[in-house]
Amino acid sequence: MKKIFSNMKPARMAIMLILALLTVQTVQADPNTTDKTALAAAISEAETYSGSIQSNPNEAKVLASIIDGCKEVQNNADATQSDIDFATSAINESVNQCKIAIARNALSTAISEAEEYYNSIKGKYPEQEKEMAALIGNCKDIYNNPDAIVELLEFTAAIPNEGIKQVKTEVARIDLAAAISEAEEYYTSIKESSPCIASVLQHIINTAKEIKDDDKLTQSDMEFATSILEEVMKQAKDAVDTGINTVNAASRMAEKYYDLNGRRFNGKPSAKGVYINNGNKIVMK
Questions:
Q1: Per-residue pLDDT tens over the stretch 58-86
Q2: Per-residue pLDDT band at 26 (split at 50, 70, 90)
Q3: How far apart, in whole angstroms, are the C-alpha atoms of residue 232 and residue 254?
Q4: Under a CB-based contact definition with an 8 Å cutoff, are residues 220 and 212 in contact?
Q5: What is the three-class DSSP state of 63?
Q6: Which domain holds residue 201?
Q7: For 186-198, what is the mean pLDDT?
Q8: pLDDT, average across residues 150-168
Q9: Predicted local confidence at residue 193, as pLDDT
């Protein structure tokens, strides 16, 4: 039965099952020799599952039709044990096929999201591009496997999102490394002529390096460090370009505080929290 059902689309499968279930044998059955316990349990389980998939209307509609057909058998006093066993197998297989359809749809969505991200980094980050291409290829192999079971499909559907998360962190780390390299080059160019400003910049560079080298930190941590470094670089260049390269200029740069969301404060914040100032983490209590 499983092989027959697996080759059918859900709607067609529903029609076939309903027709079969509604044409139960008319031979008088002895109620003392039939057991509907398993059928009742299967219907109850199917109804519970049906209630959990209302966000998937097509599958929910198909399953509801099959449940109704099985209830006809359950309530038919003339149903034979053969009818009852068929209905039980049918509803269990229908639940399984609905689960497979929903899991396959979820995997399809995850693959599409991964492909979209892949296209956004294509040609920019070669190693990460290869990682995403391999991940997408593996997921497509499972998606296209007609024998893939529910657990495999559900497990695979989570892989693209986790892969995107990891690659985004790698990309953010690469961007941070590039920002550090640019900042170090600029630091070298001004350390003699503008030592105070260079000193502030060096503090920020050192903090950014610590963040870049910490494998436990996330994409948002890398992006935050990059944004801080770029902002300080802008301030430093503005100060040097306008000739304001005194201790006062460096002091004003050092007065900039940032929260962990990247928001800048002019002066020392009064609210409790963790802030970045002059390349250091500051805890306000």
A1: 899 999 999 999 999 999 989 999 999 99
A2: very low
A3: 9
A4: no
A5: helix
A6: 170-284
A7: 89
A8: 94
A9: 87
Structure tokens at 236: 């430093």
CA atoms within 13 A on the CB side of 110: 28
**Close Cβ partners of 45 (under 8 Å, ≥ 6 residues apart):** 95
Residue positions counted in the chain = 285
Instruction: Among 122, 147, 169, give the residue marking a domain's end.
Output: 169
* Residues 198, 158 within the same domain: no
Query: Do 51 and 8 share a domain, yes or no?
Result: yes
Could you tell me the sign of the dihedral formed by the alpha carbons of 172, 132, 115, 99, in that order?
negative
* 280 in the same domain as 208: yes
Cα–Cα nearest to 176, from 217, 118, 129, 146: 217
At 233, list the tokens: 């670089």
Separation between Cα atoms, residue 95 and residue 64, nearest integer Å: 10
Do residues 77 and 31 touch, judged by C-beta distance below 8 A? yes
Q: Which of 15, 104, 120, 29 is CA-nearest to residue 66? A: 15
Q: Is the dihedral of CA 165, 166, 167, 168 positive or negative?
A: positive
With beta carbons less than 8 A apart as the criterion, state whether 130 and 83 touch.
no
Q: What is the domain count for the chain?
A: 3
* Alpha carbons 285 and 18: distance in angstroms, whole number: 68
146 within 8 A of 6, measured Cβ to Cβ = yes
Cα 174 from Cα 260, distance rounded (Å) = 20
Q: 56 is written with which tokens?
A: 């998937």
Across the chain, mean pLDDT equals 83
Instruction: Give dist(CA 36, CA 10) in Å, integer.
Output: 25
- Gap between the Cα atoms of 12 and 16, Å rounded: 6
- Nearest 5°: CA angle at 101, between 99 and 104? 105
Q: 176 and 279 share a domain?
A: yes
